[in-house]
Amino acid sequence: MQTGQLRTVGAIGGVYIAQSVLGGLTWTGLPGVLRAQELPLDRIGLVSLIVLPWALKFLWAPAIERVRLPCYGRDRSADIVGTGIAIVVAALFAVGFVGPVPMLAVLGVLLFAATATATVDIAVDGYAVARLSATRYGWGNAAQVGGAYVGSAIGGGVFLILVDLFGWMIGTWSMAVLIALICLPFVFLARTDRIAAERSHVPSLGAALRRSEVRAGLLIAALYVIAQKTAMGMFGPFFIDAGYSLIELGLLSGIGSLTLGLAGALAGGAIVRRFGSRPVLVGAVVAQAGLLGVLALAAGSDVVSAVAVAPLALVATGAIMAVGFVALYAQFMAWSDPRQGGVDFTLFQCMDAAISMISGVAAGLIAERFGYGIFFALALGISLATIPLILRAAAPGPDAARA
What we know:
Layout (H helix, E strand, L loop, with lengths): L2 H34 L4 H4 L7 H5 L4 H8 L3 E2 L3 H22 L4 H29 L6 H29 L1 H25 L4 E2 L6 H5 L2 H18 L5 H7 L4 H30 L1 H24 L5 H30 L5 H30 L1 H23 L9
Antiparallel strand pairs: 1-2
């Protein structure tokens, strides 16, 4: 890979890390903190509503792409990303003042921050699709998925450790400062490499949905997320109830993301290149189903200890999901039209976010009503049921991730 491409990959990787810091704080860090405050599971499940902007960002993606890529003029990715990150940093400083409770106030501010982050993501994805076409998207996809796991380790691991040691305010403000610093390279790079151009294509949702690759990708995204993410939001509360402290949960989550999760992201590209995306997706679902089976036993019987299962669950799930999402996102990036990459890729991510939000809220309700054992067993059954559907949905589509 050439030096210019390496700089681009590093810069976009920084933004992907920053986005996932907020995601890790929301999905892993905040539920653990709230459970430590003894909030009920059905209320903790409401945290999934913060994903709403990620599920709906397809509504404003065409407008953002038209601003980013005007009919004539320079690429405005740097302006969009700089403004969005400034909003996120300000929101996190406000959350630090508010505290983890009252919960609704925190959720409201984080929802605002998530909207800004989702908008930033539209611009960065579009920029990556256009700038990294010569690399076959492999490096960009590694930066995307690997950055997500590094960010999740920080937001879901380091954040919890800081909160446990120094309190909510210091933990939240530290995340805000980190996000600002790691996004600066992208803003500088995107601002310096802008070239004025004339563009005839007008980005739109209609242009995306008319393409068969986009329609197939939306179905595969829904099935895969149902299989992989339904139970994720309950991992933290389950292990808090099993006796783990916030700092212990943070260490396990961080180790899982920074070691096996990051390794899985880096190795995922090579595995997909060798075997193709379809078998890798199915293999990841099978592995996740096995893990859910172990959790169901730990929660519903004395056969396996929940305390003993925690390291396996929190560390191994990082590698499993990393490999699977490398396959999924490599396919999505290859299916996106470079003339409106921010729109096409956003549609795939919105399906991911919508299903994650719905399944997360449902997970809290089911676990609170029926207990962890039945919940994890149900999640296992759902994962297994999606396998034949994923095989069928993925079969007709082009296997671009092999290229």
